[in-house]
Specification:
- This is Cation:dicarboxylate symporter family transporter.
- It is found in: Cell membrane.
- The protein is mainly alpha-helical.
- The protein has a single domain, classed as Orthogonal Bundle (Proton glutamate symport protein).
- The longest helix has 35 residues.
- The protein is 78% helix and 0% strand.
- The protein is globular and about 70 Å long.
- It is built from 19 helices and no strands.
Length: 423
């Protein structure tokens, strides 16, 4: 298996899992044998969630530098990121309601004991009001929230703690260095955990197919179609309008970033193209001081493609299990995603962890991600490309907003780019 990349390994595991599931359809003994393997994988993923969220948020907030340096640019950037990603999440939820990608599979055939605990959690979150959500955001004891895996208060504390580290200057550097070390260590742990992913996917898919039959995989095609169509519409319409208001064209931007988009799409890693995007946006007329801040921070706070995917995937799981979320519950889901979609690293598969935490926060069945895991790479490719376009456009928007965009430099670069393209 070492000869193959992780994506190939997961695909092979997916095919083998489907084959084993079909072969042992209705065989409870076989299900009991392979089910623990999938459970271990789910536990491993849940194990790394809290440490990654805490360290990533603290490093992202504090690592920007002294709080004074953030100034207007920091405030405007965060505001822009929040607005655009919230629109992305809302569009993802709307698309999930229109496409209904999870329908056609009756997941209520699961044992009642498995569903009942999710139903109890769902009842506990019914009809929440804004005051309750705000109160819940503020932890009375952060260590209690960490122990319980209560993500929202942990995020709230991490953001404030990151701001505190930045505010104390030199004295905060050792603390920042500690969390940078934690984050690097957690990346290592994540890489080790992901090596177990093929086995986890094999078991989780195998168990589900053995329980429900091969027909249970039909909704996956609808999910892929829904994600790709929604992403394309978002880029053309939403990012297209933003680009137009900024005096440029999203199609021109995509042409300029053609090589980077292909690289990002094929590798499903936005980190692989980050340096090249910063260089191209600087040549495009954005000052270095803005590109060096906006683009790296954007890879934590401005993941448009990932936001759309997480919204669609969360409702996909709910629809698979026949859980009908009310309008108020979907608004709550939007608020949860506004928080959980922040602080992710720009590495392949990061959204998988966020979906699990979001499902947990909403009381939705975590087992549903077994279906998504098998095709996650296919979905990761398009969402990574959308993330790249969104963050590149953000640098242009912030440069224009700050009045520092160099129009002449942009004209010369576009002209030289077109000439080299023709040549």
């Amino acid at each position: 298996m070492k000869r193959f990349g992780l994506a190939t390994q997961i695909f092979i595991a997916l095919v083998l899992g489907i084959g084993v599931g079909v072969a042992f359809h209705g065989n409870e003994g076989a299900v009991a044998v392979i089910a623990p393997v999938g459970d271990v994988f789910i536990h491993l993923i849940k194990m790394i969630v809290i440490p990654i969220v805490i360290s990533a948020l603290i490093v992202s907030i504090a690592g920007v530098g002294d709080i004074k340096k953030l100034g207007k640019l920091g405030g405007k950037s965060i505001l822009y990121f929040e607005v655009v990603t919230t629109v992305a999440i809302a569009i993802g939820l709307l698309a999930a309601n229109l496409f209904q990608p999870g329908t056609g599979l009756n997941m209520n055939k699961l044992q009642e004991s498995d569903i009942s605990k999710y139903e109890e959690t769902m009842k506990a979150t019914e009809n929440p009001n804004v005051a309750d959500i705000i109160v819940h955001l503020v932890p009375k004891n952060v260590f209690e929230s960490i122990a319980q895996g209560d993500l929202l208060p942990v995020i709230f504390f991490s953001v404030f703690f990151g701001l505190g580290i930045a505010a104390v200057g030199e004295k905060g550097k050792p603390v920042l260095a500690f969390f940078e070390g934690v984050l690097e260590a957690m990346f290592w742990v994540t890489n080790v955990v992901m090596k177990f992913a093929p086995f986890g996917v094999f078991a989780l898919i195998g168990v589900n197919v053995a329980k429900f039959g091969a027909a249970s995989l039909i909704p996956l095609g609808k999910l892929v179609l829904a994600v790709y169509v929604t992403m394309i519409i978002f880029v053309v319409v939403v990012l297209g309008v933003i680009a137009k208001l900024s005096g440029t064209s999203v199609f021109l931007l995509m042409k300029v970033l053609k090589d980077e988009l292909i690289l990002a799409f094929t590798t499903a890693s936005s980190e692989a193209v980050l340096p090249r995007i910063m260089d191209k946006m600087e040549k495009f007329g954005c000052p270095k001081s803005i590109t060096s801040f906006v683009i790296p921070v954007g890879y934590t706070f401005n993941l448009d493609g990932s936001s759309i995917y997480q919204a669609l995937a969360s409702l996909f799981v709910a629809q698979m299990y026949g859980i009908d979320l009310s309008i108020m519950q979907q608004i709550t889901l939007l608020l949860v995603l506004m928080l959980t979609s922040k602080g992710m690293a720009g590495v392949p598969g990061a959204s998988f962890v966020v979906i699990l935490t979001t499902l947990g926060a909403m009381g939705l069945p975590l087992e549903g991600v077994a279906f998504i895991a098998g095709i996650d790479r296919i979905l990761d490719m398009i969402r990574t490309a959308v993330n790249v376009i969104g963050n590149s456009l953000a640098a242009i928007v912030m440069s224009k907003w700050e009045g520092e965009f160099d129009k002449e430099k942009a004209k010369h670069y576009i002209a030289s780019f077109k000439e080299s393209d023709v040549a």
